[in-house]
Amino acid sequence: MSEQTAVSDPREATPRDTQTAAAARRRRLRGRATILSIQAVLVVAVLGSWELAARQKWIDTFLYGQPSGVWKQLVDWFEHGTEVGSIWQQFEVTLEEALLGFLIGSVAGIVLGVALGRVRILAAVFGPFIKLFNSIPRIVLAAIFALWFGLAIPGKVATAVVLVFFVVFFNAFQGTREVDRNLIANARILGASPWKVTTQVVIPSAFTWIIASLHVAFGFALIGAVVGEIIGAQHGLGLLINQAKGNFNPNGVYAGTVLVAVMALAAEFLLTVLERRLLAWRPSNDRDPESGL
Amino acid sequence: MTQSEATPPIELRGVTKRFRTPDGSTYTALRDIDLTVAPGEFCAVVGPTGCGKSTTLSLISGLEEASTGTVTIDGRPVGGIDRRVGFMFQQDAVFPWKSVLTNVAAGPLFRGAARREAIDRSRDWLRRVGLSGFEGHYPHQLSGGMRKRVALAQTLINEPRILLMDEPFSALDVQTRQIMSDELLDLWELTRPSVVFVTHDLEEAIALADKVVVLTVGPGRVKDVFPIDLPRPRRVQEIKFEPRFVALYERIWNSLRDEVQAAYTRTAGEAA
């Protein structure tokens, strides 16, 4: 059993290991601090030069706005509300539309993707229809949904669903097709029924593909909600952006955009946490948070 | 091991297997194979690359169907996957998202055992393959030899009467491979399933088996069958120095050499 030493057991760490680990941690922290300060300098430089250009009248604030104006707009919204109700209500409406669209779209995408990936006859029958619907520019559908559902929430949810569905569907389908044949053969020999092969082998294996699509999918859900609101709504961040545009208020457009971005980043953070939990079985070297976007 | 049984556990009669290739033509992997494995017999199948060794195992396991001829297990034709069969694959086939403990428990759980019972049996088997203490590890945290032990426990926990092995240790270094071979023999003695062990390593085949079957270059046919009368229990590292082993090796190698040569010329010809 000589090769068991290949496993590093944290319980067996020697004092020297702990020391070098501490040194490595310090080095990592220093590295992080450097990166963060460079990033802060970059943000200040970009916003500062924009503000400076606006104040010196090098650019027209009527068209391009200015950072301090965006900030004032945000403060105003949070302190006095918007024309269509409190800012929190707009935030909540957009979030609700995006979340509902994301949930419905990804559940439908995963279920159909795995089903078509597993059952060849389903893929043969429904494949052409899915390709057909996928070829429709889906933003156009937002207008149709506005006709069907009026200004209420369901129209925006429907737009988000169609945007999310195809991204998740194609990843789930491809992930299902790419499952290692050996793993499936092994499970079948060990006694797994086709249903158990799907739940215990295919879905866990395809999950690497599916979770990657979920990151993109939430962004798409937000696009669906905001575009739906811009086309016609009673509440929501998209409506705020559209109204600001109508009033020639660029600062309002930027302020609305900032709020949408905050929402997207928060969702991205939650998805990353979920991903780490669900994919804890993977080797850790490709999960360095600083190595990728 | 030559006592004649009325219904041998594994029997192939005149089996031919053809595959359809992507360009529409057919490829014959096996032609007219006859093979019988007695109860508790350890049968090694050797042959050059591409002679259909692995295909033989797929046919016995029920993963593939024979084009012509019959494959029977305990006298009944194989129709789909059989509960009595265990299969150890050449590549890693343990589930990377399951811990060592649940990987080994997978077979009983798939077959409807209660969770507690499956887990208890899994612990038991992990102890037998020397992996106690690694229950919570994931496969990627283990060395290649340890992953093979997980695969071995995962296969043996179902207590197969028929054990199929497709070059299971070929990815391991020589020392680890010999240790694993000894451990395999010890575990095999416990329940004595009938084994078909496919390998391209003649030394490994003789050290393990009761009978060595030599296949011809593809499409594979049975060329020769050699009974191995070396006494058991055997120690794989030491047995190859015994004169009887050397004599057997020479005889079987004489039979195998032409096929290996033919396979080499064929692939070299294709490459040129």
Automatic annotation (TrEMBL), chain A:
InterPro entries for this protein: MetI-like, MetI-like_sf
Main location: membrane
Gene3D superfamilies: MetI-like
SUPFAM superfamilies: MetI-like
Domain of life: Bacteria
Pfam families hit by this protein: BPD_transp_1
Residues of the ABC transmembrane type-1 domain: 91-271
Protein's membrane topology: Multi-pass membrane protein
Keywords: Cell membrane, Membrane, Transmembrane, Transmembrane helix, Transport
Matching PANTHER family: ABC TRANSPORTER PERMEASE PROTEIN HI_0355-RELATED, ALKANE SULFONATE ABC TRANSPORTER-RELATED, MEMBRANE SUBUNIT
Family classification: Belongs to the binding-protein-dependent transport system permease family.
Protein's name according to its UniProt entry: ABC transporter permease
Originating species: Actinoallomurus vinaceus
UniProtKB/TrEMBL annotation, chain B:
Superkingdom, natural source: Bacteria
GO molecular function per UniProt: ATP binding
Gene3D superfamilies from the UniProt entry: P-loop containing nucleotide triphosphate hydrolases
Domain (ABC transporter) ranges: 10-242
InterPro entries named among the record's database cross-references: AAA+_ATPase, ABC_transporter-like_ATP-bd, ABC_transporter-like_CS, ABC_transporter_ATP-bind, P-loop_NTPase
Keywords: ATP-binding, Nucleotide-binding, Transport
SMART domains documented for this protein: AAA
Coiled coil: none
PANTHER family the UniProt entry points to: ALIPHATIC SULFONATES IMPORT ATP-BINDING PROTEIN SSUB, TAURINE IMPORT ATP-BINDING PROTEIN-RELATED
Protein name per UniProt: ABC transporter ATP-binding protein
Organism the protein comes from: Actinoallomurus vinaceus
Organism classification: Bacteria, Bacillati, Actinomycetota, Actinomycetes, Streptosporangiales
